[in-house]
Amino acid sequence: MVLKKSIIILVILLLAVLIVGCSSEVSTKPAQTSKPTPTPKPTPTPAPKGSLDNPADLSETLVVKTMSGTLEITALDYLRGAHATQKVLQANMFNEKPAEGYEYLLVKVRVKYAKGENSIKEGAASFKVFVEGEGFDPKIIVWPTGMKDMDLIKDLLPGGQTEGWMAFIVPQGKEALLSYNYLLKPVGFIKIPAH
């Protein structure tokens, strides 16, 4: 029985030595470190068309969805600079003369109430022009002959539209952004060229 126990202990010891011997590995090579594969930088998603970072272009329709419905806004034409200022001042002697370094910007806009369920009130009061981050409200002027002004506020039913000119006094020769404002905040932008 003692011999049997001795043989069992000897077998266990041999197995332990074999297991320990097989499990360790000695290497004289430097450890290989795998370099992490660089993660490609995601391509930035362009801002939606009509946003501050990606304004709509002249004659391009800006689609604005509000709680009241969907509007389609298009800047159809514009006049600015000395020609626009002269045209406004010649139309009526009481039209405001721009201060030094400023000019008239006249923009013809169409607003269509494309989709909705109730009537809404739209017009020039919903717009502002921004130049280098500064906002300018529409001016009330006597319009030159042949230029119909946009109503300040007009009732529209779904499918209805209003169209007309708006006047702004802005810094000379700088790009402008015509903004449509909803709940007193600009929510859509159309770029007006500097010249």
In short:
The protein is an alpha+beta fold.
What does this structure look like?
With 195 residues, this protein is α+β, with helices and mostly antiparallel strands. The protein has helices at residues 2-23, 82-91; strands spanning 62-65, 69-80, 102-116, 120-122, 127-131, 134-136, 154-156, 161-171, 176-182, 185-192. It has a domain at 62-192: Immunoglobulin-like (Sandwich). The strands form three sheets. A four-stranded antiparallel beta sheet has the order 1-2-3-8, covered by helices on one side. It has a four-stranded antiparallel beta sheet with strand order 6-5-9-10, with no helix packed on it. It is built from two helices and ten strands, in the order αββαββββββββ. Strand 9 (176-182) and strand 10 form a beta hairpin.
The CATH class of the domain at 62-192, by name, is: Mainly Beta
The number of E-state strands comes to: 10
Helical/strand content category: alpha+beta
Q: Can you tell me the CATH topology of the domain at 62-192?
A: Immunoglobulin-like
Poorly predicted tracts of residues = 13-31
Terminal-residue CA separation: 111 Å
Strand order of the largest sheet: 1-2-3-8
Query: What general outline do the C-alpha atoms trace?
Result: flat
Estimated radius of gyration: 36 Å
Return the CATH architecture of the domain at 62-192.
Sandwich
Q: What's the average pLDDT?
A: 86
Percent helix among the residues? 10-25%
* Total of helices: 2
Q: Into which percentage range does the β-strand content fall?
A: 35-45%
The ordered H/E elements are: HEEHEEEEEEEE
